[in-house]
Each structure stands twice: as structure tokens, then as C-alpha cells.
Amino acid sequence: MTTVDRSGSLTALSTLLVQAMDALAQGGPDLAERAVELKDMVTRAPRVAVVGRLKAGKSTLVNALTEHHTAATGTLECTMAVSLYLDGQPARAEVLGLDGRVDRVTLGAGPLTDLPRPLEEIDHIRQYLPNARLRELSLIDTPGTATLTVENEQRTRRALIDGRQDTRRASSWADCVVFLSDSAPRDDERAFLADLGMTPLSTIGVLSRADSFGAGAFGPRDPLEHAREHAQRIAAQLGTSVSTVLPLSGLLAETAGTGQVTGEIARNLAQLADLDRDTLLDVVELDDPAVIVPGFTAAMRDDLLDRLGEYGLVHGRAVARDRGAVGLVEWMTRASGVEELTDLLTGDFAYFAVLQRAVRVLDELDELSASHPNRDHVRWVRSVTLAQPGMHFVALYRSYRNTIAATPDSHLLEPLRRAITAVDPAGVVGLPHGTPADQVRSAHEQALGELQEMAMTPLSAAEDEARERLLGAHQAALQAMR
């Protein structure tokens, strides 16, 4: 059976979108201006927006993902502004005002700590750092949802939701979202995720502070294991909002990724390796832990707790003893959950990010086709673009997005998701790779029959289009098997 080369498809689709924008630019100065923004949007590294409530750990996660103290975690004003983190030299910040003025600030080794103008006058901040991770994954840190003031949430909405209506801001649009929460989702969070215009294929849920879940590090059960089970329940509650929910210890991830684990840290932690849990708890609580571990001071303990938390203290001490600082960093990166999250964001999500961009290009072409004075040129660009083979998955993805928005309980959502994510004809009908061809063919024929019968049933406009797209997906899969 034919399989999909996802990396090849991604490259081909990106090239197609660039060509479409070059063609759009030939329609006059106004279209050229829009094409420049859209072209920048489709050629840059995937951009991930980190959202969640105030103090959910968003800036800590940004630091962990960039492996750099990039995002301010203690300066309230700076964390209340929407910040884009991009690769670039020299290290600098560009503070974009609501009035269009740009103030440029030189950055040192740490995060931006002072703003050159009042927060209420700022639209967003772009921070450029020479950072290898940001070359493959740029980030948007937000003040969050349901924060202490209406203004803070409005900043987030202006950047991620309202800004989607303005093509001049296309280069700042997010391609996918990491949604942080430390509990079950609230109604306002569900509504916010719905307003983002994403799909589950471009949205990951993160259960933050997972290392303190349940009874915590000194409890009878590993809190990360407990958090993973709870994360699965949250994923079920969020339904069509996220692809998965991962447990994460932001503290472990940030400390491991930003070079804070030294040989001295590992040696200090290793001194606690042979203590039982009750004695270790005494070390944590006593004013002078040296009465239990000679030479181990309160300052050493407090430093370890600041960097590793109780979980790192309990579960990392044997690692520090046996494998030293290098082994401790490897364990923290893996145990924290940031490794799994990064793999997702730089793997399949990079592909879905391009689909998300392509859908936005189609949305813009649709709008211009109806309203722009040179609509004939726009319609020509649109028709030629849609006729290209690489647009098949884009049309499926847009239909998936529209069906989620219009009919979130539609039974067509799962078939759409399979058709988008499948890498071979078997996957389109939910069968494992390697299934005998006759079984795969029979499943496609059955699906085609069911979809054709649906033409006689009441469907929303989005579902009707989804049905047509799925008919094409099954027919294409059958054709590929010949």
C-alpha cells in the first residue's frame, strides 16, 4: 500500500503556499502587502502559543522549551504582556505599541525586566535571542485567561483571537497551542479554546505542577503517575479541544534545560541518597539538617528545593549519586515530561501547523475573492491553488475545523481526523498498517456506501462539506491501492 511521506508533503505544501502568495502579490500594491505578511507566516518556524490561567506556569514552560532564561517569571508587568520569542541576533526586544510605535531595547543574559512604556499602551513584545531551539519552534507567552483583571485576558485575546481577523498581523499568528491547567477545565477555558479557531490536532493540553499532584512527593504514590491518570480524564472532558493532555513538572524541566544543574548540585543531592523517606522529610523540615546529615546545611537544602522541588529531592537523589550531574539532567528532562512535549511539538504538530497555516491562507483568499476590487485575480490564485494535489489534506483539515466549530458532536469528526492523520489507506479507515489489502478495500467501500446514504439525512452545512471531503478521501485511498 502507498504511504504518505509526511516530511515531503510538508515541504511541498510550504512551497505551494509560497508560490500562491507570490502570485497573489501580482494583483496590485494592496494585495502585495497582504501577500508579504502571509508569506512570512507560511515560511517561518512553527509558532506555539502557551496559554492558561495566571500563575499556571506558562513562563516557566517557555524557559524550559527554549532552554534559556528567556521569559520573566517574577516581574509582574513583563509577564502581563504578550511576548513572542524568536531566534535572532543581536539579543534585543521590540516593544510594539497600540499606536504603532516600536521601542527597541537591548537584552542582556536574562529576561526583559523593564518596559519602556506603560503596559496599557503595549500591544505585544518581540524578543529576539540567538537560540537554536527557537529556530525550529518559536513561542508566544501570554498573560493568560481568567486572570486577575479583564485587561490581562483582553491582551491574550487581542493577540490570539482578535488578531486573526487582521492579515497585517499574520506573521504573529499562532500555529498551535499548548494549554496549561492545574485542574479540570473550567467553562471559560473551554470557551476560550473554542474561540482560538484551532483543532485538537494543533492543541496540546498540559497538566502543570504534576510533580506535586495528590499527596505530593512524600505521599504513598508517585505524583507524576497519579497526574498522568488525571490527565487522561481531563483529555476526555476537553473532548474536541485537545489532542492529548500531558503531565508536566515545569520546575524540573526549567532547571534541567537552563543549565542550573551543576556538579555541586548533584553532589549535595547525592548526600541524601541513602536516607529513608521519614528521615528525608526531617531533613526538609528541620531548621538545621546537619544534625542528620553532617555538613549538609539549610542553605544547601533550600537551594535544592528551589531548583528541584520536593519531587526532585525524593526521586532524583539516587540518580545524582549513581550518575552525577549529567545523569541527573537526563533524568529530570525525561521525568518532567518536557521531552515528550518537545517531541510532539517538533514532530506531528509541525505538520499540522503547516495545515493550519494553509487553511488560514484559504480563508484569506475566500474573503478577498468576495470583497477585493481585484477579485478576479484573487479567484484565479485561489482556483489554481485549490487544484494542486497537496491541497487535499488542507481541504480535509479545514472541513475538520469547521465541523468542530459548527457541530462539535458530529460523528464525522473521527473519520475526518483519521483521514487527516493517516499515513496509508489502512489508517484512513482506522485499520493498522499491514492489514491485508482486501480487508482495507472492503472497509473503504463500506465507508463510501455509508457516506452516500448520509446525503438523505439532515446535516449541517459543515457536515455536508465534510461528507464530500471524506468521499474524496476514501476514493483517493482506493485509487492509491491499485
Jot down its keywords.
single chain, 482 residues, alpha/beta, Rossmann fold, 9-stranded mixed β-sheet, 20 helices, 9 strands
Describe the SSE topology:
Elements: H1 6-24, H2 29-43, E1 47-52, H3 58-66, H4 76-79, E2 83-87, E3 92-97, E4 102-106, E5 122-129, H5 132-136, E6 138-141, H6 150-160, E7 176-181, H7 187-195, E8 203-207, H8 223-238, E9 245-247, H9 250-257, H10 263-270, H11 277-285, H12 298-336, H13 338-346, H14 348-371, H15 375-386, H16 391-406, H17 413-421, H18 425-428, H19 437-453, H20 461-480
Helix pairs in contact: 1-2, 1-14, 1-15, 3-9, 9-12, 10-12, 14-15, 14-16, 16-17, 16-20, 19-20
Protein name: 50S ribosome-binding GTPase
InterPro entries: Dynamin, GTP-bd, P-loop_NTPase
Domain G: 47-190
What would your notes on this structure say?
This protein is of the alpha/beta class and 482 residues long. Among the domains are: 44-249 and 342-346, P-loop containing nucleotide triphosphate hydrolases (Rossmann fold, 3-Layer(aba) Sandwich), CATH 3.40.50; 255-336, no CATH class. It has 20 helices and nine strands. The protein has helices at residues 6-24, 29-43, 58-66, 76-79, 132-136, 150-160, 187-195, 223-238, 250-257, 263-270, 277-285, 298-336, 338-346, 348-371, 375-386, 391-406, 413-421, 425-428, 437-453, 461-480; strands at 47-52, 83-87, 92-97, 102-106, 122-129, 138-141, 176-181, 203-207, 245-247. Strands 4-3-5-2-6-1-7-8-9 form a nine-stranded mixed sheet. Helix 8 (223-238) links the parallel strand 8 and strand 9. Helix 10 (263-270) crosses helix 12 (298-336).
